[in-house]
Amino acid sequence: MEEMHKNELIERDPVMPRATRPLMIVVSAPSGAGKSTLCNRLVSEFPQIVYSVSCTTRDPRGSEKDGVDYYFLSKKEFKERIKNGEFLEHAKVHGNFYGTLEDTVLFAMEEGNHVLLDIDVQGVEQLRQSLARFDPRHPIRCGFTDIFISPPSMEELEKRLRGRGTDEESVIATRLKNAAEEMAHAGEYTYQLVNDDLESAYRNLKKLILTALGSPDA
Ligand code: ADP
Ligand code: 5GP
Q: Of 2, 75, 110, 127, which is least surrounded by CB within 10 A?
């Protein structure tokens, strides 16, 4: 009985601490690596981790909704916002523009949430460079936590992209071509995760976020 109790304690899920120091969790991965699967699970399990909704000039896919999945902007609107200096970072990815509004991130952090950014390697590079313009105590600078998720192999990546069934053959080809280039940047990230077995990858993702928070549960 006592033994069982001990095991329960060891195997219980870690508790995500309240956001006294909100994190800006920045996650990159080649398309198809399983980033959405892992991140969606994280935000469902922990209500204090919220997505930063990005802007994009690409068309909505499937059931995607404006203001929920992305802010879908015309190229003209996107360029206007670049001109006004509204983006924390922005980049052209797979032929379309994507960007994070500084206000989106700040509002989420001010509400006491950890904010999760799903952005490409160019965007993260820009973020790293722009951190220096913030005061060392600014939440964006203190909370910056970068994670790169890799697939176990290129073969498995191709299998997942096809298996997802959302992209045309030409889109899959572009994404595979870009994947090798993106993977070359993995070493620039503070944390790296291989999404082989989904359950272990998810456990490791939670663990490294707790490490970033300095939690004794990590
Ligand atoms: P991304 O957001 O990185 O483009 P997705 O989360 O959409 O990738 O995952 C791509 C496909 O791979 C989906 O069909 C998903 O269910 C599947 N997948 C994700 N993680 C794993 C895993 N560890 N093992 C097998 N399939 C996975
Ligand atoms: P998708 O079109 O599949 O939703 O996203 C394609 C790529 O764009 C992904 O690699 C995703 O990380 C990246 N992306 C999404 N939002 C942003 C953003 O705000 N900034 C940057 N730089 N990349 C983004």
A: 2
Ligand nearest to the CA of 201: 1
CA distances (Å), origin 114, targets 48, 51, 165, 177: 6, 9, 31, 32
Q: Is residue 128 part of a domain?
A: yes
How much distance in Å is there from the Cα of 200 to the middle of ligand 1?
Answer: 14
Residue 36 is assigned to a structural domain of this protein: yes
C-alpha–C-alpha distance, residues 211 and 162, integer Å: 34
Query: The domain that contains 89 carries what CATH number?
Result: 3.40.50.300
Q: Which of 36, 44, 117, 160 most suits a substitution to test ligand 1, by most atoms within 8 Å of the C-beta?
A: 160
* Residue 160 in contact with ligand 1 by CB distance below 6 A: yes
- Tell me, yes or no, whether 47 lies in a domain: yes
**Residue 16 belongs to a domain:** no
Say whether pTM exceeds 0.70.
yes
Along the 218 residues of the chain, how does pLDDT read in single tens digits? 444 444 444 444 555 655 568 999 999 999 999 999 999 999 999 999 999 999 999 999 889 999 999 999 999 999 999 999 999 999 998 889 999 999 999 999 999 999 999 999 999 999 999 999 999 999 999 999 999 999 999 999 999 999 988 888 998 999 999 999 999 999 999 999 999 999 999 999 999 998 888 877 76
The total of structural domains in the chain comes to 1
Distance of CA 5 to CAs 2, 14, 15, 16, 26, Å?
5, 16, 18, 22, 37
Structural domain for 171, as ranges? 24-213
CB-based pocket (< 6 A), ligand 2: 31, 54, 58, 89, 91, 93-94, 98-100, 118-120, 122-123
